[in-house]
Design a protein that fits this description.
The complex is a heterodimer of chains A (103) and B (468). By secondary structure, chain A is mostly beta strands. Chain A contains no helices and nine strands. In chain A, strand 8 and strand 9 form a beta hairpin. The N and C termini of chain A lie close together (12 Å). The model of chain A has no long low-confidence stretch (mean pLDDT 93). Chain B is of the alpha+beta class and 468 residues long. Chain B has 13 helices and 20 strands. The longest helix of chain B is centred in the C-terminal third of the chain and has 23 residues. The chains are: A mainly beta (103), B alpha+beta (468). Chains A and B meet through loops of A and strand 6 of B.
Chain lengths: 103, 468
């Protein structure tokens, strides 16, 4: 299955406490590096398709900066209105200091 | 303590009697090795009458509606901790009944509370129970938006709203004041300032606690099947300990706890730990007391030596153990903290709905709110505040745990199992009390003059707001 993984960026480009969004195969992917671990989720909110890129991450949850919908980074589950649908989450792995995601 | 009516009761004026033949809380604290500060070593009790308290306040939906109209709209309420909104643009939604507020940091030293409703057609700008960070507050319906400072940013298709003047369309605000790291709000423009509301005596206490230098490391929600006032009153006295919490009575000076009132809105008790309940006099040794010591945050005590030397007291050993172990476990400096502050249960009520426990072993904050649609239910929150690490870092506040009605407090992440069991015992009585009051042939509840003074003091404040 390794062929499904795509290089995202160098690990050093997403230090702990930061997010990075890039298009992978025409899909916006957001990588969040929390104190706990790295997560890869959709970069687009399920509510009104606004970018999640600058959303605040706390306790492994991201908040949409536009209307405040919140999502679990591990499962994609929508935790607060106005979102009711989850966001996609993607597998992520580290290979030779590179972050790779499976989209 | 065995007799139920003492023959010498009549020699005391009402409210003057204390647990007979036992040391007072002040006597116990005065023997400690590391002396307590003045806010601990003071008393402030007054007799407030002994008439029954009417039960309609607990069982009548119309009474609850009056509370929403007259009490909750005029009192200072703890909305969130400053650490919940550390960055500019961070916000936290606080609800009380139908009211909802976006509490947000507009600038480094400017926190505001906006009524959480779009001024166009009313949609909440942020969902209840949510928090996050925003650069603007944009309505999800038609997209009207407001700047962080509450001024109108955009009315979409403003050509269609020539009657909307930006200067009249800033988000309405409740008042905000900060104290000890807590953000308080009040909907009443005519209310006294927070320091005046809490009074000078209490202000002299809280300013010494440095609660702004603590952080929330555990936060639990649970809906309780009882009126919010019954829920609160379950925590206002140590009178129930011997019956409701027999497992802790061996190391808890319950019947000789101290009760104090400060002005109209603050009261407290001090319940000394590491000493035997007067109810159990002569039945246990000092070693037994030490062996059965239960505290709120026992996780960090590890495998401390709990064998007493000859003449050593359980209370002193426990203070010594706690100082050493808590310092190690939390990376904090407790060398200047008194034995009483380390050990004892200091329970303060800030009317209407907040309890502060400034101690080290019992470092809780409780918040109680009525269910917005059901006067027979209330929302109970327990937070534990730990001192900040000495390295200067500030951990993020804990993510709240929402317990189901059938779950035990012991199931919440971060909750000490022994303390969770105590909270289960406290709240298990409440449905029976709610239903019992509804079934009662008696029109009121009857209170002890001393041990239940906080309940009388609290209900006097409720009455004050409903009458005025």
């Amino acid at each position: 299955m390794s062929s499904n993984f795509t290089r995202f960026c160098k690990l050093e480009a997403v230090p702990p406490g930061s997010n990075k969004a890039l298009k992978v195969n025409d899909t916006w992917v957001l990588v969040c590096h929390t104190k706990e671990r790295l997560f890869a989720v959709s970069g687009i909110c399920s509510h009104q398709a606004k970018p999640l890129f600058s959303g605040r991450v706390r306790n492994c949850k991201i908040t949409c900066p536009v209307h405040g919908a919140r999502f679990d980074l591990a499962t994609g589950e929508a935790l607060d209105l106005p979102a009711t649908r989850p966001i996609p989450v993607y597998e992520l792995r580290l290979v030779d200091d590179w972050i790779e995601v499976c989209v | 303590m065995k007799q139920t009516i003492r023959e010498d009761t009549q020699i005391f004026a009402p409210g003057d009697a204390r647990c007979p033949d036992e040391p007072s809380t002040q006597d116990i604290i005065a023997r400690d090795k590391v002396a307590a500060p003045a806010w601990v070593r003071s008393e402030s009790y007054s007799f407030l009458g002994d008439e029954d308290i009417s039960i309609d306040r607990y069982i009548d939906a119309a009474f609850a509606k009056q509370e929403f109209d007259k009490l909750w709209t005029r009192t200072w309420q703890f909305a969130c901790r400053e650490e919940h909104i550390p960055e500019i643009g961070d916000y936290y939604v606080y609800d009380i009944g139908r009211h909802s507020f976006i509490v947000t940091r507009v600038a480094e030293h400017d926190i505001r509370a906006y009524y959480n409703a779009c001024l166009h057609r009313g949609t909440k700008l942020r969902a209840s129970g949510s928090d996050g960070c925003a650069s603007e507050f944009k309505c999800s319906f038609h997209g009207w938006s407001w700047n962080l400072d509450g001024t109108l940013r955009e009315a979409v298709c403003d050509w269609d709203f020539p009657h909307v003047k930006a200067e009249a369309f800033s988000l309405p605000e409740a008042r905000v004041e900060l104290l000890g790291g807590f953000v308080f709000i009040n909907m009443d423009p005519a209310a006294p300032s927070l320091p005046d509301y809490l009074g000078p005596e209490f202000m002299a206490h809280i300013t010494q606690w440095k609660l702004e230098d603590r952080y929330v490391y555990c936060h639990v929600y649970k809906t309780i099947p009882a009126n919010w006032k019954l829920n609160m009153e379950a925590f206002m006295e140590a009178y129930h300990v011997i019956n409701t919490h027999p497992q802790v009575a061996v190391s808890n000076a319950d019947a000789n706890s101290q009760y104090d009132i400060y002005g109209e809105h603050v009261d407290r008790f001090i319940s000394s730990l590491g000493v035997l309940s007067p109810h159990l006099r002569g039945q246990y040794t000092e070693q037994d007391i030490l062996d059965r010591f239960t505290i709120g945050d026992a996780s960090m005590l590890g495998g401390a030596d709990r064998t007493l030397a000859n003449g050593e007291t359980a209370r002193q050993r426990m203070a010594d153990i706690m100082r050493e172990m808590f310092e190690k476990a939390t990376n904090t400096d407790l060398s200047q903290v008194s034995d009483a502050e380390l050990l004892d249960c200091f329970s303060y009520t800030l009317f209407p709905n907040t309890f502060l426990f400034p101690g080290i072993s019992l470092p809780m904050v409780y918040r109680f709110r009525p269910h917005k649609d059901d006067h027979r239910k209330s929302i109970y929150e327990v937070m534990f505040l730990r001192p900040l690490p000495v390295d200067g870092s500030r951990p993020e506040p804990a993510e709240p745990v929402y317990l189901r009605d059938d779950q035990s407090f012991t199931e919440a992440d971060g909750m000490d199992p022994g303390f969770g069991a105590i909270l289960d015992q406290d709240t298990e009585n409440l449905l029976l009390q709610q239903e019992g009051l509804e079934a009662s042939a008696k029109g009121g509840i009857t209170l002890g003059n001393y041990q239940e003074i906080r309940i009388r003091h609290f209900e006097r404040a409720v009455d004050k707001y409903l009458v005025e």
